[in-house]
Design brief:
With 268 residues, this protein is an alpha/beta fold. It contains 9 helices and 7 strands. The model has no long low-confidence stretch (mean pLDDT 92). Bound molecules: S-adenosylmethionine (SAM). Keywords: Methyltransferase, S-adenosyl-L-methionine, Transferase.
Length: 268
Amino acid sequence: MSTVMDFTKQLNDFSTTFEQLAKVYDHSVQHSEQMENAINSYSHWITDKHHESFWADKELERSTDFEQLVLNLRQQSSLCVAIMEKYRAMKLQQGEVEIADYFKNIEECIEKEFGSFHVTSDSKVLLIGSGAFPMTPLLIARRTGAQVVGIDIDDEAIGLGQAVVETLGAGLRIHLQKALVQELAYTKEATHIIFSSTVAMKYDILDQLYSLTNEHVIVAMRYGNGLKSLFNYPQQATDHQKWRLVDNILRPDDVFDIALYQKASHAG
Ligand SMILES: C[S@@+](CC[C@H](N)C(=O)[O-])C[C@H]1O[C@@H](n2cnc3c(N)ncnc32)[C@H](O)[C@@H]1O
C-alpha cells in the first residue's frame, strides 16, 4: 500500500465484504470459508505496523466520513466474528474442527489474561459475551479447574455454545446462560470477570457491576485502541470513585489488549 487513499479504499472494501457476509448468514455453514478468510485477512491487516502511519494521518484529518467508516467497521466486524464462532460451532457438530488465526490469537492471550491476578481452582470466573464457541471458558476451566459462567444476549450463541462445551469440555465446571449481569446471583460471587472485546456496552456494564460485585473482584476488559479500534470497542475512562486501572496488558502482535480494573477501595 502506498497512499492514504489506498488505506481508505481497503477499509471500504472490508466494510463491503463484512456487510455482505453478515447479510447472507442463514444458520448453515454455507459461507463459512469466505467468512474465515475475511476475518483472517482483517486480523492481519489490523496488526500490520505499516498501517499505523496512515491511521495517524486519518486521525489528524478528523473527517466525519472516516469516523463513520470506523464505527461501521467495528460494528460489522464484531457481528461477523460472532457469526464466525457460530460457523465454527456448527462445523464441530459436523465433525470438522479448524482453528483459524483469530482463534489462535485468543488462545495465546488467555495465559496472560489476568496478569499477576491468577485464576486458581477456587476462583469463580464470569465471562460477559461468551459467544457460540466459548474458548475462554473451555481454556480457563481446563487449565485451572475454576468454575466458569458465561453469559450472552444471543439465544443461538448460547445453544451452540452449550453443544460445544458438551463436546469439548465434558466434566469441566462451565455453565452458559442467556442472562444479564443484574439477573445472576453468581455476579456477586465472581472473583474474576472478563469482558469480550466486541461487547459494545462493556463500559456501561462495568459501571453497573460496581454495586453488583464483591470488594475483591478483578475485571479483565478486552479492548482495542487506534488501529485495533477497527475491530474492537476501545478503552474508556472509568469513574475513579468506582474502578481503577491496575494493569494494562499490551499485546502488539494481537488483535486486542487487556485493561485490568479493581474497585478503587482495593486498588491501593
Ligand atoms: C465474538 S463473541 C465471543 C468472544 C469469544 N468467544 C471469547 O471467548 O472471547 C462476542 C459475543 O458477545 C455477545 N454480546 C454482545 N453484547 C453483549 C452484552 N451486552 N452482554 C452479553 N453478551 C453480549 C455477542 O452476542 C457475541 O456472542
